[in-house]
Fold:
Amino acid sequence: MINEIYDVIVVGAGHAGSEAAAAAANLGSKTLLITMNMQTIGQMSCNPAMGGIAKGQIVREIDAMGGYSGIIADKSAIQFKMLNLSKGPAMWSPRTQNDRMLFAEEWRIALEKTPNLDFFQDMVKSLIIENNRVAGVITSLGLEIRGKSVVLTNGTFLNGLIHVGDKQLGGGRMGEPRAFGITEQLVSLGFESGRMKTGTPPRVDGRSLDYSKMEEQKGDENPKNFSYLDNPKLTKQMSCHIVYTNETVHEILREGFDRSPMFNGTIQSIGPRYCPSIEDKINRFAERERHQLFVEPEGWRTVEIYVNGFSSSLPEDIQLKAMRHIPGFANAKVFRPGYAIEYDYFPPTQLHHTLETKLIENLYFAGQINGTTGYEEAGGQGLIAGINAHNKVHDKEIFTLNRDEAYIGVLIDDLITKGTDEPYRMFTSRAEYRLLLRQDNADIRLTEKSYNLGLANEERLIRVQEKIDKSNQLESFLKDTSLKPGVINPILESISSAPVDQAYRSAQILTRPNMTLEKLEEIDFIKEVTHQYSTEVKEQAEINIKYRGYIEKEKDNVAKLTRLETIKIADDFDYDNLKSLSAEAKQKFNKVRPKTIAQAARISGVSPADINILLIYLK
Structure:
């Protein structure tokens, strides 16, 4: 193994590293996955869940691209919920609660079944760099392993520092050592690095909780899957629970502020804005009398409970004292306290859209090393990095996804173009074309691309084409079928919609507020036709009919943007030579080196006037 030259070496076996290794190996690259601990491959370091708002769309996209995250989430799910069903389809987001131990086990099984993939347990302490190109890695054992490309997915392990009150421990996760050497080497090569913070809540013994004082949260009655493959659906589910903090809890937590690393200056780095610690919440939102907590089981066969919303770096005695004043937690026993962790990251403006670094050829970054937070964001980056590492060493074209093609495209474009100085989390609001990027059509958007790459197999492509064909058939039927007043008015009356005095096409009726295909199926001759179609096909046809005008408008906007994407900017373009450009624009352009006018326009701090100057010059 040590004497072989690998096509792709992946450092780190979290969500980014696992997806990167799977993608590169499945494409045919001889791949090595190096991890500090073979027992924590695919570990859920924080919450035992996949998906959620916008994140669920990313998992569906990873699955459509031939990645593993959706399959693993399905196999280890203990609950499924489709979030935001009261809103439009652009906001619907799938989420699973998962068995933490089973999730990691399924990841390892899947990777071990992947051809072309080797494993090695050791810490990578430095990279082999030759002529500004990566040529392999050096491990803590002093082994030199050669590789044509390297993907770094170090998560929170680069110089990781754990905080519990006034105690500090070196580590990448509680009980696991930190990694060192890589940051110092990259900085010496000219890379800019920074520090970020994240945190995790305490884990408690579920046997010590009184669930009668909590609000039960069951899964969906008809649970779906993440993967578009025929994975078994859940037949039984575990419940989560909701509970709230109170003023007593807040007062006790405030007692520990003087010993909190967040408030006494020990922690200097910035944490995730949209997943703040409990002490941060009661400090920033002092007017609120309570905060919502989710009590989440960690698996089928464990009593361990994850207290979502109670992330904390306060002293362990304060955490327990405050927690016992939460309803149902009076006798709570803590398995391990919450903690904060600081770690090194590298501002992602130093990358190309392929996630290859600009300074060192064939070196790729993916996951939290790029300043993101979340399993799903990490997995999406790992997939793209793995694909491009493979393509680069085999002299194939680069692969990127545009903002109108995938949330993964939005994520990477935001990182590369705008950078981030706080942990980046995906939301539907970050995608300007979110009606095109729905969770239900990720297979339609991406499977053909994946098939052309060599990731998705022919079976997947055939299934997608069948879904498209059947959806079109159903749409045509609804557009061509007329409904007379005597047939449709009773249904319209039941949803408080104005009656009709002449025949209307079924598709026209379907566009009315509160009208659904399910309601139309109360008509026998409609039901006779629609019953032959799957739920997914019916959902697709209904969305396409109800939102056609909005969808077409978004497609027009994409076409306008695409025209700007075709105006390329040379890599060596001299921005300093354009005297009319603002000083800020020159600075930003020189740092980001945008590839197109459209990308240049998305850089924060760049004005429309700056873009017009560029356009005039390039034309």
Q: What stands out?
A: The CA atoms of residues 381 and 452 lie 19 Å apart. The domain at 203-339 is CATH 2.40.30.260 (Elongation Factor Tu (Ef-tu); domain 3). The chain has a mean pLDDT of 94. The first helix runs from residue 15 to 26.
